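Consider the following assembly input.
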Amino acid sequence: MATIGLAPKTKPTTPKTGIEAKDRAKIAKALETVLADTYTLLVKTHVYHWNVVGPLFLPLHHLTEEHYKDLFAAADEIAERIRALGKPAPVSFEALLPRASVEEETTNRSAGGMIEQLIEDHENIVTRLREAALSAEEADDLVTTDMLTARMAFHEKAIWMLRATANK
Ligand SMILES: [Fe+2]
């Protein structure tokens, strides 16, 4: 049958890259949280892009577009790092969501409320990213540390831009 070759499913692998198996598992778990936060913030940012109204419409519409595009590209990079560490990526958003520290949006906010919420989320994510980056470094996983440091730079720049937009 032609389907025989299609039977295998994703399973953990054991890349011999000098990172201990227990450390790879721990880092992959931390990256699931980073992925969950990135996706949750991506959806929230995209929804704000659509719903924003008022005098800040244009700057916030443009800034959120820049941000959701970055977050989407980052989600891909983070999930692929989980795979490179030998672990399967989460199979669904439902499986991923409980790992998130950022909460989904449930209300219809003003432009000012959107900015406040985004600042809070970006700040929370940066704090978690720093912990994950330092713990990956402790495990000699410099590739993950490098990736997470770049993610921190994005979020810190986003915080600056959002604060500057609202003069906060
Ligand atoms: Fe758009």
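The two ends are 64 Å apart (CA to CA). Ask yourself how this observation constrains the way the partners meet.
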